[in-house]
Design a protein that fits this description.
Length: about 475
């Protein structure tokens, strides 16, 4: 901007010089000299002006630097102002919200104060009314007590007669209704009590007798094992007899297990697969929820008997291997029948080995046999194990029956509750009828003696008018001693 000003000034001076030169050609010499003097003076002024202009430019640059600093400070101030403005706006918003909440609280407080005032006024009114009603009630009680004392004798005979007729009929009818309601209610309560006591006794007996039952079953198992040893000589070499004997042992254990035949287990039940092939396992044991376990007896006696009779270790080892091979053969044969696929039962079949020592010998000498059988869905089981398993199954059935009894108890309780509710409803009806009878009696009493135009006063008027009748109204009902208006 300063440069443009200088150029403009130089242009003006140049123009002025040209004008002066042009005028010098047409003016006198004196005038020209004067003009030259002015020109020199103008140059001098111009030089001074240029110096001042340079100083001014320097000052202008300083001012420009200062202006830049001020501009930067102004930008910073603007940013600070924006931040302050945002903070102010937030504060204003908070203040507005606080003001709104304060106004709301004031209005709520005002409404609460108004409600408190209204409730206080209502309370005062209630207290005044209550005091008035209490005074009136006390007065009415005194009047009622006086009336009761004076009218008890007068209306006793009439009340007795009316109530005797009404109450006798009402009592007989309601007695029949109450008997009809309370009799089945009492029967249901007694049944419920018996059910609870029976369930508790059964469960207690089961808990306390479990140990004795297990001991008894263990003794039975030992006796069975002893009997099995005694029968060994009779069964040697006869596979069919051995099989029948194993089935007899199995059935004997089942009979003593507490399970009921043909209800919780079946002997020689017939089964058929999808190809029509018929199977007849030794025993089907039923579990709750329609589950079934197949038990098949397998006797391996010959090799075991030879093992027991062997005199040398080599002979024992040979017969032991024969005994193990026989059991493996029974496992494979039973696995191929796939009994577990023919029922809705568990995914295994029990292979019952009736001779406990033979079972223990095989398990001890070949520890892999049990896993081998289990992988083929065969569960090897001895008399001792079978007794314990049957005891568990028996307990399952007992718990199933207890659950059914509990459901029956719940149903009995529900019916009992409904009877009680019905009884309470009937009692409420009885109360309503009694109140209604009382109201009817009081109404009849008022019609008879109280108020203007009551029946006694009208009868007295008729009597005073000359009606011929030898009968007199009793004095306690307002007879001749009462004054007729």
């Amino acid at each position: 901007m300063a440069g443009e000003f200088i150029y403009l000034l130089v242009g003006l001076l140049g123009g002025l010089v040209m004008i002066l030169i042009w005028r010098a050609k047409s003016v006198p010499r004196d005038s020209l000299t004067e003009m030259e003097n002015r020109y020199r003076e103008a140059n001098t002024q111009t030089a001074l002006f240029q110096e001042r202009l340079q100083l001014t430019q320097v000052e202008l640059l300083q001012v420009k630097d200062l202006l830049g600093q001020k501009t930067s400070e102004g930008h910073q101030l603007l940013q600070d102002k924006a931040s302050l403005s945002a903070a102010v706006e937030q504060f204003k918003a908070f203040a507005d919200r606080f003001k709104t909440e304060l106004e709301s609280e004031k209005m709520t407080n005002q409404r609460q104060q108004e409600e408190i005032g209204r409730l206080q006024r209502i309370t005062s009114e209630f207290q005044a009314g209550n005091q008035y009603l209490q005074e009136k009630l006390n007065t009415q009680k005194a009047e009622l007590e006086e009336f009761r004392r004076t009218s008890q004798l007068e209306f006793s005979q009439m009340a007795d007669k009316i109530l005797e007729e009404k109450v006798s009929k009402f009592t007989e009818k309601n007695k029949e209704n109450l008997d009809h309601i309370l009799k089945p209610l009492g029967e249901n309560i007694e049944q419920f009590k018996k059910k609870v006591e029976e369930t508790y006794d059964i469960e207690s007996k089961q808990r306390f007798s479990l140990e004795e039952k297990v001991k008894e079953l263990m003794e039975q198992s030992n006796r069975i094992s002893q009997e099995a040893n005694n029968l060994t000589n009779a069964l040697r070499g006869q596979a069919k007899k051995q099989g029948n004997w194993g089935e007899v042992i199995l059935e004997s254990i089942l009979e003593k297990s507490g399970l009921q035949k043909n209800r919780e287990y079946k002997i020689q039940a017939t089964m058929q697969n999808e190809e029509g092939q018929v199977f007849r396992p030794d025993v089907l044991i039923f579990l709750p929820e329609e589950r079934t376990i197949v038990v098949d007896s397998k006797v391996s006696l010959t090799a075991y008997d030879r093992y027991c009779a062997a005199e040398t270790k080599d002979e024992q080892e040979m017969h032991l291997q024969q005994h193990l091979a026989s059991l493996y053969q029974h496992i494979d044969d039973l696995s191929r029948k796939r009994y577990d696929e023919l029922t809705k039962g568990l995914d295994f079949t029990m292979m019952f080995i009736p001779i406990e020592p033979a079972y223990l010998l095989a398990i001890q000498e070949d520890q892999n046999m049990w896993n081998y059988a289990y992988n083929k869905r065969i569960l090897l089981i001895s008399p001792t194990n079978l007794i314990a398993a049957l005891k568990l199954i028996s307990d399952l059935w007992k718990r199933e029956q207890q659950n059914k009894n509990a459901m029956e108890i719940a149903k009995q309780g529900e019916r009992l509750y409904e009877k009680i509710v019905g009884f309470l409803d009937t009692m409420e009806d009885i109360e309503k009828h009694i109140n209604k009878t009382q109201e009817t009696f009081l109404k009849a009493k008022k019609q008879l003696k109280d108020g203007k135009g009551n029946m006694v006063s009208q009868a007295q008027k008729l009597k005073s008018m000359g009606i011929n009748s030898d009968k007199m109204i009793p004095e306690h009902l307002g007879g001749e001693e009462d004054q007729v208006d």
